[in-house]
Amino acid sequence: METEEKIRLLMSQAVSDREGVGPLADLASGLRAREPLDPINIRSLADRGFGKTRLFRILLTNVCAFSCDYCPMRAGREIPRHALAPSTLADVFLTAHGRGWVSGLFVTTGIPRNPRFAMDRLIELVEILRLRRRYAGYLHAKAVAGAEPEQIDRLADLCDRVSYNLEAACQATLDRVAPEKSFEDGLALLRRVRDRSQALGTRRVGGDPRPPGRAAAAGTTAQFVVGIGSEADRNFLETSHRLWRERALHHPHFAAFRPIEDTPLEGERETPVLRENRLYQADHLLRDYAGAFRPEDLVYGTDGNLPLSRDPKLAWALAHPDRYPVDVATADKETLLRVPGLGPRTVERLLAVRRSIAALDVAGLRKSGAAASRARGFLAWRGRTLGARSIQETLFPPEHFPEPSRVYSFSPGTFR
């Protein structure tokens, strides 16, 4: 197969629904392919501290010796298998970078032969880019299960972000669907990247063209596949939040399970994407709402899962009717952050202006940036409610969601 065809295949298999901390933007029409290096998998990444990055996403190889039951690249599955030499991928990426198509690289890999070999190839690519070709831009690499400690250190030294696929929130699930992987080893890997970054501090790695102190400066991310085991949403959120509090995780990724044809889980039911979305919403509350929510504060069903029919913040409000309405004139920041329709920026604006205004109405709420139709029924101004609630006040109404029954040849969530 020609290099161009390999690149197209390996880029298409590294596609993702979500990356970083914001939604993906479509590739600008001006960047669409007119030449052999078709940038078919370039995505916009918005990340605090790094600005907006057009990210080139690719697999170094889709060859894998592991047999994870849910994975389209599992050993023995009949798919086209290809690998790029690290030097070839470096050339391709730097060409795209030089033409202004991209400003950063995300690279992941299957595990050909064994984890040490896979990591050596990944590190070779990173060293070519940083030390030989003097690339100083954004670089994100995904470490593999079974990586050696010194390999993890080297990857952290030269990358802005290192990620890892935890996949599950307990070892029992991995024993069933990914027996080559260790949950505790995955946690140790994320903590090691944190420790390495902190240990280097403001020192420069020899030959690194970046400013000192940039080793793994964007932190780590980890992926969970939702629905391959018995874990409830509560388990995923408790695990990710614990790592976040330890500063061993910048943010998690959640991928709704999709059954892949010709795998042991082909006959399993697809996880609703809405469940994935609810997990992202809950994680946003836990990380970005200044301590207003903890995992144990969230509302779960008897199965430990978040309600699909309500976003987590609204579910909390409906479960605590005695806390509302909240008076904007006197409430503290944490209380305001628990109001549906008010985000952190809106709360800051309201706190800044409330001393200087005589009254607040729905128009004023909207001007502050609030989702006024959602917030008004939960708010008051000096004892006067701002409006009626526009939602049905039942917490777990009958949830009539179609039963998913599709089977896929490929799952984009596998490579976040």
Q: How would you characterize the overall build of this protein?
A:
The chain has 416 residues and is an alpha/beta fold. It has 2 domains: 3-271, Aldolase class I (TIM Barrel), CATH 3.20.20; 312-385, no CATH class. It has 13 helices and 10 strands. A 7-stranded mixed β-sheet has the order 1-2-3-4-5-6-7. A 3-stranded mixed β-sheet has the order 8-9-10, with no helix packed on it. Helix 2 (86-98) crosses helix 3, helix 3 packs parallel to helix 4 (149-158) and helix 4 packs across helix 6 (183-200). Mean pLDDT is 86; it is low at 16-40.
Tell me the distance between the termini.
26 Å
> How would you describe the shape?
globular
| pLDDT averaged residue by residue | 86
Q: What order do the strands of the largest sheet run in, or round the barrel if closed?
A: 1-2-3-4-5-6-7
CATH topology of the largest domain: TIM Barrel
Tell me about the biggest sheet?
7 strands, mixed
Spans of 5+ residues with little confidence (pLDDT < 50)? 16-40
Strand content: 5-15%
Helical stretch tally: 13
Count of domain modules: 2
The helix/strand order is: HEEHEHEHEHHEHEHHEHHHHEE
CATH superfamily of the largest domain: Aldolase class I
User: Portion of residues in helices?
Assistant: 25-40%
Q: Helix/strand-derived class?
A: alpha/beta
